[in-house]
Amino acid sequence: MSDRDHWQLDGSAPELYQRYLVPAITSIWAADLIERTGPNPGDSVLDIACGTGAVTRLAAERVVTGRVVGLDLNAGMLAVARSVPKTGAASIEWLEGSALSLPFANNSFDLVLCQLGLQFFPDRPLALREMKRVLVASGRVALSVYGAIERTPAASAFARALDHSLGPDASRIKRAEHIFPLADEVGALMTREGFEHGTVSTVTKRITFPSVLDYVRFQLVATPMAGLLGDRNAVERESIISAVASDTRSLLDPEMLRDGRLSFPQEAHVAIARRAR
Predict the structure, then answer these.
(1) pLDDT at 4
(2) pTM value?
């Protein structure tokens, strides 16, 4: 593989997220969520924790004449979202705000979306109650969360390698992405917070990175895990990244490493339900 094939991780974290992680992961799950949900023309749609807007823009393609809002707590992510050309007919409102205190009146939306965000909220029941509050009667919510970390081999190997190189608590942030190992846990939480007629599907997608080194470097440079290396100089950072990548590679099935690339299954639970009347 030539240097040109590797990711060039220069730029802000939101820019890198949009440039690399959206094509590699986010867009794959966004297309799945929108296909399963099927937003209707004229719907009013809210995308919570929208990031750089992969789900939001796909929703705008479907609703055509409806209202589409992308909300995120991270101003940097929203700045990148606003810079990406939209392809749908519906206009998109980009708003900075918290999932725990949505800046909307009751009964404002027909559909609330939240892709791979619920696991990061500090109060998940409150976030679900807020989603219910802003939905119209019998409005729908559709969300996804990662499954057990062991069901995503690259994440599991990376977490183990982090702990080996940086100490037993180093993988805490990565493992926190996978706090819903069982689909039933997602469904039960949604039922408790006022949703009904729900379905939770466990879905697996194939994810590909240019290499294990690119995967590890992205995680340690352009995600909240960058804090693990924040006090290291450039030489130390590269040494740690290389060591973690080597450990990660050694823990993976060789079939995932064909042609120098990294290709692995990633599991998520996708839940769709209606607001209880």
Answers:
(1) 41
(2) 0.93
